[in-house]
Amino acid sequence: MHFILLSALCSVSVAVLLKLAPRWRLDMPQLVMWNYLAAGTLCWFLLSPPLHSLTQPSTPWWALAGLALVMPSLFLVLAASVRVAGIVRTDVAQRLSLLLSLVAAFTLFGEQASTLKLLGLALGLAAIAGIVVRPDRGGPSPAGGGNALCLLLVIWAGFALVDVMLKLVAQSGTASIASLQVVFVAAFLLMLGWQLVRHWRGQVELDGRNLAGGLALGVLNFGNILFYVWAHQALPDSPAVVFAAMNIGVVVLGTVVGVFAFGEKTGRWNRLAIVLAVVAIALIALAP
């Protein structure tokens, strides 16, 4: 179970770094760019992706190209959401993206809808409604009104889209690790091209501070993936337990860090939504 804890810690640490980046005057696009360089390098050396699986005619290059565009874009939205809506609400919205993934599993992948999964879906939708509510006025609040609402909904839908695209890649027979390697490299090259254009226009300077911050972000981002993979390998007969513990752990840790480390304010509906999210994740993961 220590792999699950480490994975959750890495996930929440990513949110913390994104929260602190504006205070440290770090450039977010550069951080995201170097993040993918670090993630791609670590993926190559630690997971040894079977790239031969990419030579199959069924390899969905369109989906891999889409992921290379969507994932860095979503990373930038995630950073904005952490800054505007806070770590607590952003982490809950991200984890509840599994609701849309579940709907896609029912409608696109032919998965059977059990009573527990439908109950979890209903509770999860109620949690989404509660988490987007702006915290009560009075005292410091990270909420940003309509901006926060839009960002949280994009996070919710965006991570579900990534999950569905990854499932489509997996269905094609392409190894998941190989597909991630390609996406990491492609995302880095796309972001590099954008940063070179920004630098050429005099908008930013490519400096060592952003390089260091981006590499740290990449280590944490990849650590989340790596420890999650190792958790599944350590508990091969309990994938639902790993899934539930990981997601619930992120929600709980994110709430603790957001409230106690950054003083984020949560309203009564937000707190109810957190409880509903934990129950929904557990029901969906543990359903037969």
Automatic annotation (TrEMBL):
Domain named EamA: residues: 3-132
Pfam families, per database record: EamA
Keyword Transferase: no
Species of provenance: Lysobacter defluvii IMMIB APB-9 = DSM 18482
Keyword Nucleotidyltransferase set for record: no
Membrane-crossing segments per the record: 31-49, 61-80, 92-109, 116-133, 145-166, 178-197, 209-229, 241-263, 269-287
Keywords: Membrane, Transmembrane, Transmembrane helix
Superkingdom as given in the UniProt entry: Bacteria
One GO cellular component, as annotated: membrane
Record's protein name: Membrane protein
